[in-house]
């Protein structure tokens, strides 16, 4: 568009001679170029006449002519700019008009209206045809002893009555018949809202408010089961067992639901009724901020992402455990469920329903009020005898299954053909065997870092933490920052660089925990909100502390490293103190 506008030129010398922009004809490029070529020649001749001392006119006249030409060129440039703006506005208005026409879809609405009209006409024709065929198929009435005029009038009256009846039926039930017409479903695509910090906070508050009644109900049930209020739990236990004994358990629950709805109605009308076993803690409501800075928005997104990650993780664990329970992933666990279902099926077939309901209600009351209270008060007892808790705790999730499979593959010994008959030495324990079998992506762990075979990552960091090593003593960009994985063993802190091509590379970093002089959390960029995503470690061999940055699980890694570091330092101090005492 801009290239076409640059080709537009104007002819003429005076501003009054220009045509109106709406009525001016389009000039060709050749004409514009000719005019542009003619202009400088005329100006050169005028300049020669002004320079010639013998020529007509004076110096003042020449200056006036030059000023006049300059003002004319400025006017031409101004008109040219206005024309470009007008053409651009016209182009944009045409685009908007085209979009509006596409959005309105007037033609599609007209087509749908015509289809509905044609459907209505077809329906009327079908109804008329049905009425005609039924009237033709109906048997003629028997002749009567009266005259022919009487028979003719009787037939006409019957035809009029039947037509009126069918017309009334059509007017009465035609609309309902039309509702049963099969039509293809319309696929409606929901429009997704753009990401907004204000909308994000509002949705999080709505979710919190919506889940509050459910969380309060579950908290009250837990308090009732754990005998938080002894009198309330005792009264509830007596009422429930009495209802079960007399067979009123289901009516009792229905009455409680009606009572809850009645209380909600009174609360909606303005009554202040608060009944809860556990006192509700009123959380302070933060006023919504309209204008958020970039750092506040970034921190808000991080908080929401963390909450969503934890929530989705818990939901995924529950769903995966249920799936694995029914898919026989753990056969010994699913076998218990299988036997229990068979026993319940046989009991439902043999026992009467009244006795079966009494047994189920009695067991549920004793378990909820007594057994669960004992298990919550005595965790060791729960770990031994609470069958549902043990089953749920031992059910694996999909990530746990992947870790188990990878661990079994890594622990599988690699035996050469010549050593098939050789057994494993008896002096090697399980820990040494698992440490020897553990390997990283580059190879065995002890070979990658040139360590002893006993050194292996702690259970917290079996897969390592993804991070980048920032060595501020180096000046080269390739040595300054390295991406890789960080591991912690019993005595060492190991960093495996992702750019290392061999198993034991110089790019890998091994730090002895005993040599660390200082360890603390570090914030690489002070502009970003929060406490940062890095760990700084100072050693005597480095002038500036090494920084392991861009760690998603920074707090977990820091706790693991710091706890192991304190163990090593405490052990070293104890050894040194024992030697000095001797």
TrEMBL record:
Residues 134-157 are annotated as: Disordered. Gene3D superfamilies: Pleckstrin-homology domain (PH domain)/Phosphotyrosine-binding domain (PTB). Pfam families: GRAM. InterPro entries: GRAM, GRAMDC4, GRAMDC4_PH-GRAM, PH-like_dom_sf. Keywords: Coiled coil, Membrane, Transmembrane, Transmembrane helix. GO terms for biological process: apoptotic process; negative regulation of toll-like receptor 9 signaling pathway. The keyword Iron does not apply. Residues 83-133 form a coiled coil. The chain crosses the membrane at residues 221-241, 247-267. Residues 443-523 form the GRAM domain. The keyword Transmembrane helix applies. This is GRAM domain-containing protein. It comes from Pygocentrus nattereri.
